[in-house]
Each structure stands twice: as C-alpha cells, then as structure tokens.
UniProtKB/TrEMBL annotation:
Oxidoreductase keyword on record: no
PROSITE patterns: HTH_LYSR
Coiled coil location: none
Organism this protein belongs to: Streptomyces paromomycinus (Streptomyces rimosus subsp. paromomycinus)
Protein name as it appears in the record: LysR family transcriptional regulator
Positions of region (Disordered): 302-323
Entry GO terms, CC: protein-DNA complex
HTH lysR-type domain span: 1-58
Record Gene3D superfamilies: Periplasmic binding protein-like II, Winged helix-like DNA-binding domain superfamily/Winged helix DNA-binding domain
Length: 323
C-alpha cells in the first residue's frame, strides 16, 4: 500500500464518481478503477459501493478513509518537519558564553536569531573559557564565545574566529574627579582605589594590568575584586573606586557613571567564537549566518576558517595585552 492509494481513495470519496475523481487526480479513469480494486484486495474488504447514483464509501471504507486522512496528514507534516529541520528552523542550539559577551555582541545576535528561528530551542550556559572549550571538545556544546582563543586539550581542533576586539577603559561615578575627562593616564591609575575583575577568564587581563601598573603596584594590591564587569560598573557607580574593564562596557551605560580611555591604549584579548569543524548542524549554520550579519568583518574570516579548517596554529595562544 502506497500513499497514492490513500490519495486515490480520498479523491473518490470526495467526488463520488470515478471519472470526476480521475480528472481531479490528473489520471485516466481505468487506472484509477484498477488501483481502487487493488487496494480493496489488499485491505480484504469492499471500500466503495458502486451504484447508479454514484460511488460511496462502505462502512469499511469510512473506517479506512478516517485513518487514511490522518496518515496523509502525518506524512505531509513529516515532510514539512524534515524540510524545516534541514533549513535550521527547528532543533536546538547549545551555546556557552562568558558574561561580558552579554554587553556585546550577544544581545543583538541572540535577539535576531530568536526572531528568525523562533522554534529553535536555545540552551544558554554562562561558563569560563576553559570549561566551554572542554564542553565543545566533548560535544556538550555546539558553539562557544570565549575570552581569547580556546585553551586546553583539543582546542587546536576547533574552528575559531574573533567576533569582537576590546581595549581597557575606566569607569567611575559622576562624582569622581575623573568624570568628564576623555582619558586618564597609567600614572594616574597607580594612585587610585581600583576595582578589577577576577575569575577563570581574567589571567590575561590581570597579567596586562600588572605589566601596565607594575608587579608591586599598591593600587593592584589593594584593589577591590569584582566577579564580572557588571559588578565593576555597579561598584564604580557606588563610588567605591575606579573600575577597570573592557571597552564594550560602553554598550551598557548606567546612570551616574562615566567611561574614559586609558593612555597608552591597552588592547585586551578578543572575544572569540568557536565550534567543532565536524559539526554539520543546520541550526549551527543558521546561527553562523546571523553572526555574519551582526558582527562587522566576521563573515570573510569565518568563511576562510571554514574553508581551511581550525584556526589554531601549533602553539598559538591569545596575545597578552600590549603596553
């Protein structure tokens, strides 16, 4: 029994006439009569009464047609679901990310992806770079946004591309003497109460600050340690001290605070998007398309990585901040 047998039976029931049903199906009447007869032999029951007034389903035919309608509906839905899955319109995406990526660019990326793929289930996990790298390698994540290039076992096999560049800035309350200034110097920071972030993703930043201010800088020894950039901004707004963080803090302006540059300009590790090169998920590729459209200059680099494989060279590590 094939799907066409079900369609033929439903058309005959609708038109109550072999000729009209055959016309609607776009076939000749004799083949339709033969197919219905073959179907009845396979079912083992007469499905239609042939009368002078027309062709009408029997009791067995009514039972068969009810199931046939549902079966054809399921077949149509199955084909539709398969097509949507192949286009990345359904399924799930498991994303690991560092907290500061919620300043930029994730709000734009996730917002656009959610609008374009409302039926994709997003599984979002805030985690440090080392943890998200291990999860990617283990197949527990589809994609990750990390601070600097992924590090650790298996990281060299990932496809990675920068999606955001950053440099060090200062955030203070509007009551602080630095408020209103376009920039402050490193020498000025040595004499301030500083607020810095601490965590698994901060060694490169901490190393850069030590290189910038000096290994034994009193400002670093007495610094207030915050969990992440959001806490840095909150503490600075409270007048606790001078917060040091990435320039993308400007994407989350807070009343009562002021951001200014640090001179000399101090680059920070890039935000990096990574995924396994063997991953062929249509949902992942739909997400990468959104990245291309939302993050300037990423498209060409991403296409190059996809064409040439993992982006890590042997021994490659994130560059520390330069002074």
């Amino acid at each position: 029994m094939e799907a066409r047998h079900l369609r033929y039976a439903l058309a005959l029931a609708e038109h109550a006439h072999f000729g009209r049903a055959a016309g609607a199906l776009g076939i000749a009447q004799p083949p339709l009569s033969k197919q219905i007869a073959d179907l009845e032999r396979e079912v083992g029951a007469r499905l239609f009464d042939r009368t002078r007034r027309g062709v009408f389903p029997t009791a067995a035919g009514e039972a068969f047609l009810a199931r046939a309608r549902r079966a054809l509906g399921e077949m149509t839905a199955a084909a539709s679901d398969a097509g949507r899955a192949a286009r990345g319109e359904t399924g799930r995406l498991r994303l690991g990310f560092i907290a500061s990526a919620l300043l930029e660019p994730l709000p734009v990326v996730l917002g656009r992806f959610g609008r374009e793929r409302p039926d994709v289930r997003l599984e979002l996990h805030e985690m440090a770079t080392s943890r998200s790298t291990a999860a990617l390698v283990a197949g527990e994540l589809d994609v990750a946004v990390t601070l600097g290039y992924p590090r650790g076992a298996g990281a060299e096999h990932l496809v990675s591309v920068p999606i955001g560049h950053d440099h060090l800035v200062v955030v203070v309350s509007t009551a602080h003497p630095y408020a209103g200034r376009p920039s402050v110097s490193v020498d000025q920071l040595r004499h301030q109460r500083l607020i810095v972030a601490s965590g698994e993703d901060e060694p490169a930043i901490s190393a850069g600050l030590r290189a910038l201010l000096g290994e034994d800088a009193a400002a670093l020894c007495g610094a207030t340690v915050a969990r992440d950039v959001h806490t840095i901004i909150g503490l600075a707004a409270s007048g606790v001290g001078v917060g040091l963080g990435p320039s993308r803090m400007a994407a989350a302006p807070r009343p009562g605070t002021w951001l200014c540059e640090v001179t000399p300009r101090t680059p920070l590790p890039d935000l990096v998007l990574s995924f396994a090169p063997s991953e062929r998920s249509p949902v992942l590729h739909a997400f990468l398309d959104v990245i291309r459209g939302s993050c300037p200059d990423v498209g060409a680099a991403l296409d190059h990585r996809l064409d040439h494989g993992p982006s890590h060279r042997p021994g490659r590590r994130p560059n520390p901040p330069r002074t």
